[in-house]
Amino acid sequence: AQSVSQHNHHVILSEAASLELGCNYSYGGTVNLFWYVQYPGQHLQLLLKYFSGDPLVKGIKGFEAEFIKSKFSFNLRKPSVQWSDTAEYFCAVTASGTYKYIFGTGTRLKVLA
Amino acid sequence: DVKVTQSSRYLVKRTGEKVFLECVQDMDHENMFWYRQDPGLGLRLIYFSYDVKMKEKGDIPEGYSVSREKKERFSLILESASTNQTSMYLCASSLMTGLGGYTFGSGTRLTVV
Question: pLDDT tens digits, residue range A12-28?
Fold first, then answer.
């Protein structure tokens, strides 16, 4: 069965620090990968997605993620975080051609001003 | 702006009550989903529907049922609410292929007392 692991449950950073949130999945076939963000009191929003092609994907608000197939990973990065990046981040995976996502348990990021 | 609208933001219900959570999308999406979100557990799929009157169980369907009589509307029903169903309930929709990601509603925070 597919599964998604987000090993960092809580992350605290100071503004301007670099961010990397880990996401590993277990599935042997072709996958589509997503990162979603949930700002306090708001609904989940799509941050970026990977289907195929360049494994380095750029999303909104300066975020990027790199798909490393050999490591079954899709880590989220941002070179310099801002206080407004405080949110919960969810990684999700689906087998290519299907629409049922498997979500990770989420990572709560707090950025200190 | 495309939307997924959940009828209630907050609900308080008594144990044993029958509870209806409504979700409407205006994007003509084929797929609709109900998740519950709990701290430390991430998003867990309750039920999903890929067409009118079609439904499939997700990972935690026990104690829930769903109804999809029209393409734009997907209802979650708690047959007899229990305190362990206190949670945030999220509705989402997507295209048949899942490309483009999910669009989420703002959520309904249900408290069962």
Answer: 999 999 999 999 999 87
